[in-house]
Amino acid sequence: xxxxxxxxxYGSRLASLSPSKPLTPVAGVPLIEIGARQCKAAGVTRIxxxxxxxxxxxxxxxxxxxxxxxxxxxxxxxxxxxxPNGWSxxxxxxxxxxQFLLLMADHMFDAAxxxxxxxxxxxxRDVTLAIDRQIDxxxxxxxxxTWVQTDSAGRITAIGKTIEQFDAVDCGAFLATxxxxxxxxxxxxxxxxxSLSDGMxxxxxxxxxxxxDVDGAWWMDVDxxxxxxLAEAEAPKRIPGAFAxxxxxAAG
Length: 252
Known about the structure:
The chain is of the alpha/beta class. The protein contains 8 helices and 13 strands.
């Protein structure tokens, strides 16, 4: 199983802490390495990291990170990293032969979430999104969250940051097929900006976007100094495997 980690954006809300969001340390371990270690724990055998902003620094870091994690990590650099994140998904998917785990570099997860998600593939869907139905989760920033509306079967009917009706929040982890990249291209051809949510809505309209409820398992998006402080306090307790003493020493 391949994983694609999106790590191309600027990360302006964390710029006061680090010039590179993926390299921002949490309790001594850079976010991108935390994600890579969680991928390995979930059974991933190869990682593609889509780079853009501060690409030289991120790609140089990944060389030693791959050795520490014990997985091949292949960087794929995009030229215009200011474009919406769907363009990064297209680039990452092109480096994978089939379905893949898709993560954002600034998200962290209880290992059980990713392990369950890897097993969610089914011919009746093109993508499965991890969702949290606790929409008042104190770790979720309501002004930055991507919201999800589902039907009685758990299929996505609407997704986006500004939808009016929703019953879950997007956790930032997907089990995707190549159809997701095709759906983003379809949205772009229809005049959309090319966000990941644009492509997800295309699949939702086709009835091909499923969900997996995390059932209260821990996850969080590290997007600004406030959530970074929360992550430093909580993540080493919640996902201790990513913060083993040798990991912090190697990354620090």
